[in-house]
């Protein structure tokens, strides 16, 4: 039996003051309004049991939602309780057809000048992190430098390095602010600055010292962000900038003069390679010693577990590409030899082993997710949506679940091609990891900043692609609707070209258009 609701779920401050607590994380509304430290919650209840051997939690037309609930992390039973809850038909979930209103009120439009780089970039950061509520920070705020990627908080430090970089920063800020306020004039100015920056880049790349110019590398990051904030929402145009960054970074590796900026360039390419399942140059073993030196560079912000994960997961894109090659070869009637399949399985095993200590460290240092006893199914959610101590913790757990989902799916695929029996636990575990990611979406993306929502893009896209590969159209459409909702709430475009890739409707062998960065 689950314990009856009690004040134990309230935060410490509300329990002491005997006031109503709405239990928002990481700070409840009552404490925010009183400008008091929240004091934390009693998290001893309802933690997620990821080690249970029972059937996975599910959300579908035909089954009741199930949830693993345990008393605490230290004493998990062999089989958690599996209470049944009422089920909501997935076909009714989130099919937004019109722009949803922002759940918060934007501050008075300050009519910024895109040529005032300091002013417009500061306003961009206020909107990007949503630093404009009455108490300055939202209840689900994300600390600067802890967002997925982490580099945007350094923008103000980059101003003045070069005209190219300043122009790109102004363009990015104007595009994002213009979309937030639906100001066509500001968006047009941002687009013009973007085109000017492209022309300046094209002129600078043929110069002999271009490979050593950090401002050009920083510009690749900024330009790829502009593509997200413009109406096209990224897609193929964004890939050209990411590819250009990879080209420039390769030249930096020749000089081996590493700094923090290069880590952000490396990770941007890594995330893109994971989402598109294409090979990544820096994932090869030959780069491993230099990569270790790169990750040893001093960083501005202390999010060590995040960077440890990105370093450990580097082999994944090439493993996934090898799996896809094996599947394509088998489908063409020319299957890869068993020795080649076994070699990929060995690489999977090595990567899983290297990630295990990292996950133990995550569980030791950060509270895992939990859910509430009366976690109802909303029109835009799944049963038992997960709660976390912070957006940063949510990001780390979702990166872990995503990597496990991709690794286990790859193992299952390869074993089936060897005509070997697939262990009975693999598919339930895969389903469980995908379910955990789906049930985390609301925490990071509902009434949060764009910085927070962005942290769920890669895990959610990975799950969307997984459902497409297994032809689970119902769940895939639910994931796509999540991207639609995020796009509407955050007032940004989203590249449905990427989602078409997930659905397998894009020709993966299509030619890549010429990029300005090809000159590098």
Protein model, in words:
Residues 10-38 form the Zn(2)-C6 fungal-type domain. Keywords: Nucleus. GO terms for molecular function: DNA-binding transcription factor activity, RNA polymerase II-specific; zinc ion binding. The protein has 520 residues and is mainly alpha-helical. The chain has one domain. It is built from 20 helices and 2 strands. The chain has helices spanning 12-17, 29-33, 117-128, 155-158, 163-181, 184-204, 214-229, 236-255, 260-276, 288-295, 304-312, 316-331, 338-365, 391-417, 426-438, 441-445, 450-454, 457-469, 473-490, 496-502; strands at residues 47-48, 69-70. It has a two-stranded antiparallel ribbon. The longest helix has 28 residues, at 338-365. The model is unreliable at 1-5, 41-101, 135-139 and 502-515 (pLDDT under 50).
* Radius of gyration, in angstroms, nearest whole number: 23 Å
How many structural units, i.e. domains?
A: 1
Q: Based on helices, strands and strand pairing, what is the structural class?
A: mainly alpha
Tally of extended strands? 2
Shape: globular
The ordered H/E elements are HHEEHHHHHHHHHHHHHHHHHH
Count of alpha/pi helices: 20
> Residue share in helices?
40-55%
Estimated share of beta-strand residues: under 5%
Q: How do the strands line up in the largest sheet?
A: 1-2
User: Sheet bearing the most strands, described?
Assistant: 2 strands, antiparallel
Q: Look at the structure and give the mean pLDDT.
A: 78
Protein name: Zn(2)-C6 fungal-type domain-containing protein
Organism: Polyplosphaeria fusca
GO molecular function: DNA-binding transcription factor activity, RNA polymerase II-specific; zinc ion binding
Keywords: Nucleus
């Amino acid at each position: 039996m689950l314990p009856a609701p009690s004040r134990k779920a309230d935060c410490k401050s509300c329990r002491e003051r005997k006031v109503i607590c709405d239990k928002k994380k990481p700070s409840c509304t009552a404490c925010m309004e009183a400008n008091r430290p929240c004091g934390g919650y009693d998290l001893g209840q309802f933690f997620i049991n990821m080690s249970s051997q029972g059937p996975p939690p599910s959300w579908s037309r035909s089954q009741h939602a199930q949830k693993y609930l345990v008393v605490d992390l230290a004493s998990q039973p062999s089989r958690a309780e599996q209470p049944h809850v009422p089920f909501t038909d997935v076909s009714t979930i989130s099919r937004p057809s019109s722009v949803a209103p922002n759940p918060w009120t934007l501050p008075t439009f300050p009519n910024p000048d895109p040529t005032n780089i300091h002013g417009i970039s500061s306003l961009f950061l206020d909107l990007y992190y949503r630093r404009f509520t009455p108490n300055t920070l939202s209840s689900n705020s994300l600390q600067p430098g802890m967002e997925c990627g982490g580099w945007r908080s350094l923008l103000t430090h980059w101003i003045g390095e070069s005209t190219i970089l300043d122009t790109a920063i102004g363009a990015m800020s104007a595009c994002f602010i213009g979309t937030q306020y639906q100001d066509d004039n500001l968006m047009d100015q941002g687009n013009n600055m973007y085109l000017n920056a492209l022309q300046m880049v094209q002129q600078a790349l043929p110069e002999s010292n271009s490979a050593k110019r950090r401002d050009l590398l920083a510009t690749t990051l900024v330009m790829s962000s502009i593509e997200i904030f413009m109406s096209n929402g990224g897609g193929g145009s964004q890939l050209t900038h990411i590819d250009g960054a990879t080209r420039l970074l390769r030249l930096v590796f020749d000089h081996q003069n590493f700094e923090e900026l290069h880590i952000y360039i490396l990770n941007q390419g890594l995330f893109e390679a994971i989402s598109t399942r294409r090979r990544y140059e820096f994932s090869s073993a030959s780069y491993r010693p230099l990569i270790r030196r790169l990750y040893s560079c001093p960083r501005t912000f202390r999010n060590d577990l995040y960077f440890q994960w990105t370093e450990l997961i580097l082999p994944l894109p090439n493993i996934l590409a090898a799996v896809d090659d094996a599947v394509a070869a088998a489908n063409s009637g020319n299957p890869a030899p068993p020795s080649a399949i076994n070699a990929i399985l060995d690489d999977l095993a090595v990567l899983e082993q290297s990630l295990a200590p990292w996950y133990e460290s995550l569980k030791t240092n950060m509270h895992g997710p939990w859910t509430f006893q009366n976690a109802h199914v909303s029109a835009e959610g799944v049963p038992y949506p997960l709660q976390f101590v912070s957006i940063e913790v949510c990001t780390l757990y979702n990166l872990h679940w995503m990597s496990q989902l991709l690794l286990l799916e790859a193992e299952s695929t390869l074993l089936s091609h060897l005509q070997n029996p697939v262990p009975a636990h693999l598919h339930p575990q895969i389903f469980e990891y995908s379910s955990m990611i789906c049930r985390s979406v609301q925490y990071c993306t509902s009434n949060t900043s764009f910085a927070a929502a962005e942290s769920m893009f890669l895990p959610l896209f990975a799950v969307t692609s997984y459902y497409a590969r297994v032809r689970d159209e119902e769940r895939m459409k639910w994931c796509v609707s999540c991207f639609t909702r995020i796009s509407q709430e955050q007032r940004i475009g989203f590249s449905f070209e990427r989602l078409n890739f997930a659905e397998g409707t894009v020709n993966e062998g299509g030619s890549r258009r010429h990029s300005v960065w090809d000159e590098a």
